[in-house]
# Entry
Amino acid sequence: MIRKLKAWKELMKLGLNVSKLRTEIDIFFRGNILGVLRNEGWFDLLREPKTIMEIASEYKYTDIEFLEYLLSILLEDGVIEQDDDHLFIDEEIQFAWQCPSCFDDAMQELWVDHARAIPDRLRGKYIEFTGGLNLFNWDDALSNKLYEQIRRAAFAFADALKEPIRFLDVGSGNGRGTAAIWSYYYENDLFQNGSPMQIVAIDPDENLLRIAQEEFAQMVSEHNGHDMSIKDKVNEFPVEFHPGYAENIPFDDETFDIVYASQVLHWTDPKSAITEMLRVLKPGGFLFGTQNFYPDANKYGEAHFKVVEGAYGFFYKDTMEEWVKEAGAARFETATPISVFKVTKGN
# Structure
């Protein structure tokens, strides 16, 4: 209970009502998708009943499975109706759009771009995770305060700062989150000569890894009030950045005491990723992080992820519990609406 309260305390530092924040984000994602589909012409087309294949033919869509997925979201939301195998709109579609108060310009533009990619996704074309301007938007978005407080909530719940350990950051991105993690351990005086404290980070994206490797010391300095002297400590206890996928971690069994993955699993094959992360954990070690789960996760939000090839999307908490138990976990715990989680490996 105390760990859960600590996690909540960190989220409260956002200065926002968490329930209100979730509503703002849900409205934003819904507005993104409906706006794109309106501009694509769906709302006019469906004034007359159409079958799925007629919709696909009209717009030259080739990914019928993804089309069915989007239509299922609209049906569940009451945006469209169905009569036998025909789909139609019975009344004028009204929807709001506003940028959540916790989003900065980069994060807003990132998700707007993902929504705009949906028509191409329906025609079989995915976007690259950091293709084009996405690289710069991800670089900026990952410094957002929302990510910082979610990360701190996860660390508070997992009680991950007690002792020097070997730590693996899975899906480290541009390294900005890793810089924060390095700083947490530094603040707790765990980088000492002869200490086993070591942070290793992996990410599959070469563009983000390059930023991490080149700018890590500067990121740590910025995280610590632009303290330039801290760079010497970073050089003394550097983070190892490696290319690697969550589903195929390039380390031996039982290498790490702690593995961290925050808002990562929906981009991966989550069952395989969980099995791999537990494989590299030492007995008694733990995996922790954050993940959105159904039924609370927003399906309009999930659609934004699915424009990137390989993104699995969201899943149920019970499903993750099954996966972790199959992979050798002794315990699975969660807290907060954003679902901070901790998975302890059996001895």
